[in-house]
Amino acid sequence: MSIGAASIGAESSRRMLLLHGSGTSAGAFVNSPTASGAKRFLAGVPRRADAGASIPPNWQYHALDAGTDDGSWWTGDDGKGLEKSVASVERALVEQAAVGIVGHEQGATLAAIVAARSALGEGPRIKFAVLCGAAMPPPPHAALLHRLRDDSAAGAVQTLHCISPTDSDSAAVAACFGQEAETLFHDGGGAMPGPGWWEETRGYPERVTGGRFWCTQVGPARYYATGNMVM
User: I want to staple 35 with a disulfide (CB 3.0 to 4.6 A). Which of 92, 142, 181, 191 is the partner?
Assistant: First the structure.
């Protein structure tokens, strides 16, 4: 099952797939302001009524549900159900024509696996992943991330790792995505970062998918100069 914001047009390439953490659902994830929800995170994504020529088009999102009784994407140290979840996410990426993926907690670990498979040419092509509190996955998927880390010929999937300064496990995941991986430190512990993440990262999804400019909910567009520095 997937839920999402109102469509801004079938031809839009600004689409991202959301993956909730364990113990919740897609609907609760996008609507909850608690530590297990994405409401405050999504509030940072501009929803402009004046989007068009001088303001970047709005980003769409779709939240995928794990479809399990307890909201988990897998169970146990052996990752029971993980292969099925990977297949479900990759199918949704194709169906939704999503170019990026955003995950929280268990959903972030799942997103890291899907991003790694994309970079290694083993899954659908995506351009970016935003990983909030990702942990190293159970084997054999941990080996997949290590293989990505050691493969200099792997394709590039841009990643943003939103973690607390003391979260060493998430830092280990970030290291598997190479020098281009970006880190956004925040004080929310295991929660999603608040609405300021969009401005702090200079419209990360827009920037890493080749956008010329970005904006917040109010004010004019801000252009990227050479090297993605803001003019």
Answer: 191
Q: What are the tens digits of pLDDT across the range 75-103?
A: 999 999 999 999 999 999 999 999 999 99
Do 153 and 219 belong to one domain? no
pLDDT over 70, % of the chain:
92
CATH number at residue 110: 3.40.50.1820
Q: Which domain holds residue 93?
A: 5-197
**What is the rounded distance in angstroms from the CA atom of residue 188 to the CA atom of residue 25?**
21
Phi, psi of 109 (to 5 degrees): -65, -40
